[in-house]
Amino acid sequence: MTTRNEAKVKKQIVWKWNIIGIDDAEVFFNRKIAEGWKPVRVGMDCSRFVFEPCEPGEYICRTTSTINKYGFFDKKKSREIKQILMDSGAELVEHSWFLRDWIGVCAVRKASLGNFEINSDLDSRTADYEARTKNAIFKCVTLFMVFAAAWAFEWTRLGRIYQLDVIVLAIIMTCVYGLLIYKQKKKLRRYKEQRGVSEL
After folding, report:
1. Which is higher by pLDDT, 100 or 17?
2. Does some domain include residue 57?
3. What are phi and psi of 74, to 5 degrees?
4. Angle at Cα 30 formed by Cα 58 and Cα 46, nearest 5°?
5. Containing domain of residue 75, as a range?
6. Phi-psi bin for 50: left (phi > 0), alpha (psi -120 to 50), beta?
7. Could you tell me if 71 and 147 lie in one domain?
8. What residue spans of the chain are helical by DSSP H?
9. What b/e string do you get for 77-109 counting C-beta neighbours within 10 Å, with b at 16 or more?
10. Distance CA 155, CA 44 (A)
11. Same domain, residue pair 136 and 59
């Protein structure tokens, strides 16, 4: 019979606030796997992560977006990616009910099954990062407009948000998405350069 203390040992909860985008999550998860912890759940605010014990290096984690070429969430693409991953023997990392797969799909697979890649060719990687960049720009502009409207009309009902608070929050969110856009554009530029070289 498993005691309450033994049950607690079976899971590790980590709070991490500097995960910006699913690429950072993939790096973080693979580092935890190397330490003997398999990711099983991502919390609603993308800062709370739940892990279960595994053998160090037992799994490989990969992530991909569920964004279409126009920069918006694609439910059909999400279902297809999940099915392909499960057919390959991968396990999906659960997201909270609110996020679901809006931030992308994350999966782990036994390392013993061989190399594990989702976007294995340069064309698909380039297309994926183009879509991610469009999505991040759209979110950044939308958030800025919402905060600008909140400041202009002095929306103070939700938690008594004052104008200065709105301005500070708008700056923070714009910086976060600005950093995400920069990182994605940097990787997108690298993939385009690699594709150009491979086509020579």
Report:
1. 17
2. yes
3. -120, 105
4. 130
5. 10-113
6. beta
7. no
8. 4-9, 22-34, 75-87, 122-153, 163-198
9. bbeebbeebeeeebbebebeeeeebebbbbbbb
10. 25
11. no
- pLDDT 10s digits, 105-150: 889 999 999 988 887 777 877 888 888 888 888 878 887 777 777 6
Phi and psi, residue 35, nearest 5°: -90, -5
Residues 31 and 126 in one domain: no
Same domain, 18 and 61: yes
Closest CA to 63 of 37, 90, 43, 34: 90
In a domain, 4, yes or no: no
This prediction has a pTM of 0.71
Reading the block at residue 46, the tokens are 């993308």
Confidence band, pLDDT 50/70/90 cuts, at residue 51: very high
Please check whether residues 78 and 166 belong to one and the same domain.
Answer: no
pLDDT in tens, 74-111: 888 888 889 999 999 999 998 765 444 456 788 999 99
**One domain, residues 183 and 130:** yes
Question: Which position has the token pair 């160090």?
Answer: 56
Q: Count how many domains the chain has.
A: 2
Q: Are residues 128 and 86 in the same domain?
A: no
